[in-house]
């Protein structure tokens, strides 16, 4: 299925917004766009929700016909256990995470140990953990880690754009990670010359206008037949004012939804 993420509303729920969107408002916006999946990803306020508040979120999502996913960062066993409890309350089947956080950068051996400690509980509840492709760890090392842990509940959240900073081409990352992919973050991206033509800026773009070979991604991973959700995100730079930034953010969301739907 096609879904949206909190990253599709990144600036509108940020501190720069005059009235930041709440999680409940993002769910209602998602429903208004006729989208059935919403990934609550790196949404800091969620950590302060009580179990009763989480159940209220589930009730709203159920009323709107929206399936929920979760996203966090880190592989510390206690942290993953906390998100597993949230997943249980929210009836979530997938949690996206990353190996590194700002204050914890485990070695591959340490990450393996932590994952092996945390994953049996995920297996027991039938929840999948998807580690995202990022420049901090090569896709080769990420695949090796997933293969070594060899848990039926461990896979990869494929985002071909993120590994560009490690000089891995998007199609190379797609090829390497396709077999293990259980979630996809979809965003387009492009290089533009910086002022003075000294260097480049890598930033987001509307789907179909940048460097993401979406057709290749679909052909290689085959998410529809494998039941893999495609979650829309944006790499939209700040446009100088909240009004302009929010307007473009919403336009990109509508365009990208139409693009995915027309390329089913």
Q: How many DSSP E strands?
A: 10
CATH topology title: TIM Barrel
Task: Give the CATH class.
Answer: Alpha Beta
Order of helices and strands: EHEHEHEHEHEHEEEHHEH
Mean pLDDT: 96
Low-confidence stretches: none
Broad structural category: alpha/beta
How would you explain this protein's 3D organization?
The protein is an alpha/beta fold and 264 residues long. It has a single domain, classed as Divalent-metal-dependent TIM barrel enzymes (TIM Barrel, Alpha-Beta Barrel). The protein is 41% helix and 19% strand. Helix 1 (23-32) runs parallel beside helix 2 (51-64) and helix 3 (77-90) packs parallel to helix 4. The chain is globular, with a radius of gyration of 18 Å. The model has no long low-confidence stretch (mean pLDDT 96).
Brief overview, please?
This protein is of the alpha/beta class and 264 residues long.
Features of the shown structure:
alpha/beta; 264 residues; 10 strands; TIM Barrel; eight-stranded parallel β-barrel; globular; two-stranded antiparallel sheet
SSE topology:
Layout: E1 2-5, H1 23-32, E2 37-41, H2 51-64, E3 67-71, H3 77-90, E4 94-97, H4 108-125, E5 128-132, H5 139-149, E6 154-158, H6 170-177, E7 181-186, E8 188-193, E9 200-205, H7 214-221, H8 223-226, E10 229-232, H9 242-262
Parallel strand pairs: 1-2, 1-10, 2-3, 3-4, 4-5, 5-6, 6-7, 7-10
Antiparallel strand pairs: 8-9
């Amino acid at each position: 299925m096609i879904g949206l993420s909190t990253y599709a509303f990144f600036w509108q729920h940020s501190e720069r917004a005059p009235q930041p969107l709440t999680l409940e408002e993002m769910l209602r916006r998602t429903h208004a766009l006729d989208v059935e999946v919403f990934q609550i990803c790196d949404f800091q306020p969620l950590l302060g929700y009580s179990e009763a508040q989480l159940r209220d979120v589930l009730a709203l999502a159920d009323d709107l016909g929206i399936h929920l996913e979760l996203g966090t960062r880190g592989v510390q066993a206690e942290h993953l256990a906390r998100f597993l409890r949230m997943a249980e309350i929210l009836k979530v089947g997938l949690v996206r995470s990353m190996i590194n956080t700002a204050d914890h950068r485990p070695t591959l051996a340490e990450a393996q140990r932590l994952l092996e400690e945390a994953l049996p509980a995920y297996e027991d509840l039938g929840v999948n953990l998807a580690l995202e492709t990022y420049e901090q760890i090569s896709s080769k090392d990420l695949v090796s880690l997933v293969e070594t842990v060899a848990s039926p509940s461990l896979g990869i959240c494929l985002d071909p754009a993120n590994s560009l900073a490690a000089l891995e081409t998007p199609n190379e990352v797609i090829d390497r990670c396709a077999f293990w992919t259980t979630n996809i973050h979809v965003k387009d991206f492009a290089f533009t010359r910086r002022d003075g033509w000294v260097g480049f800026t890598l930033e987001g773009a509307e789907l179909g206008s940048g460097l993401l070979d979406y057709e290749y991604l679909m052909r290689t991973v085959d998410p529809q037949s494998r039941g893999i959700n495609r979650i829309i995100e944006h790499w939209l730079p700040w446009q100088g004012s909240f009004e302009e930034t929010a307007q473009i953010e919403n336009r990109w969301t509508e365009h990208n939804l139409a693009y995915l739907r027309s390329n089913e």
